[in-house]
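Title: Prediction job returns without error message
Component: structure pipeline
Severity: low
Priority: P3
Assignee: unassigned

Description:
Job completed but the reporter wants confirmation the result is attached to the right record. Sequence as submitted:
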Amino acid sequence: MAPLEQEQNIEVLRAYAILATREVERLSRDLAIALKRPTEEGFLSDELQDRLVKLQERFFGFGREKIEHRSATHHENQQLLLHGTRQSDEPEVPANEQKCDEPKTSFYEVAIDDLKQEAVSRGFEMSKAHDWEEIKGLTQDSVEVTVVERVYEKVVHKQKKYRFRPSIGTDKEIIVTAPGPVKLNPGCQYSVDFALSVCSDKYEYHCPLERQRRKMEAQGLETSVKTLYGLCQAVAEHAECVLPQIKEDIFNDRKVAAQLDETPWLILGQESKTYMWVMSNRSATYFQFEPTRSGKVAEELLKGYQGAILSDGFSGYDRFKKLPDITVGNCWAHARREFYDIRGNYPEEVKAVLDLIDELFEIERKAETWDELKELREKESTTALKNLHTLLLEIRSRHFPSSGLVKAIDYCFGRWKELTAFTTNLELPLTNNDPERALRHVVMGRKNFAGSKTINGADVAATLYTVIESCKKASLHPKVYLKYLVTERWHKRVPLSPLRYSWMKYGKPKHAGQ
């Protein structure tokens, strides 16, 4: 049978036209019924509308969950929450990276011939050189920002050798070689600085290795992605020795709870989902790659830990509620988001709820010491929570159980014990934002280079993300610390974690509280 586009028989075309007309009429009737259904089934329409609004907010909403009726500068000049205070105050910048606010000075002079020509152009006879005199200390200044492109150089290291011949007692001779530069591994043809630059570009600034390779090729350096990955792997192998210390830094911070979260991490060519887990607080951030989202991973991460933990409402963390040495708290940012996403459907009710939730954060910002925070939580936060609970009950009685507003309320009631645990446990912050901020870098990496090719590559990513994010918590530049780490390992010394290195170099701040 010929394709319809090539059919020339009028009877066949007529039959096609009749069938097409009947199908259009049937679809028109179905469409008319579908358009009437929402008005006939209003109860179902409300439920679908709530889901639609949440999905629109999640995918198209602005990242910052700000309330429209409040000032855009609402959070400016506010007291920093105590749970987020850094454990080190001294930022550090690599010695080879000049700050933009430290300008270089360039002087410009006028050539003698140009000065002579200038005199002639103004009606004077041809002047002599000594007729012009520089005005000392007077210049016309302007400032501009420029860029100096990265340059790759090959350096030949010549280590001199020395021979020692004892004059008496033996015919043997001793040969000593001058020490050479620190290397990632013996015989490595790339410098430590080169390797750290590759790691930083990928795991700190999310630039894929292939993109780096092309940039290097444009600068005249021929290399391969496999070589660049090998350098990242070598740096990660050096960094593995401080991972137990970083985990201990989180466990030993008795002022702030350990906070957990997870996000998908892709293994290329693998259909099943895999995950990058994170555990963090103000002292450090620890990542671990696992092929599952099971709560057993969280149990492994927290093995040996006693204290408080904070998480979202994921059921995998429920196992810790039964442990006597663990206090479980839930995140108010997640509870708040349940209402924020549907504010368009229930503007008055949601505004009243968000005002009371935001009051909890305002109370936290009043505290400048831990003693003040304890008193504020016992008095003001407890009162605000009672008012919120009463409001939620009142609103729930006025809406259908399947509405989005009741579901948001039930989300809170189902976790009320964990959401209010912060009033009796100072270790618990109000939100789980700390690990979520850390996971932003993982998400950016996943977006830019689509995860990892192998499980080994995912482990390398977890190790380097751990060190880089922990350096930020300790106010260290990641490349500065990683160079220290590689140097210590090269000289057979045991390096310190970012937090302990920062304390050793700058001293322990008064607010550290460990």
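Comment from assignee: result matches the submitted record. The first strand starts at residue 161 and ends at 164.
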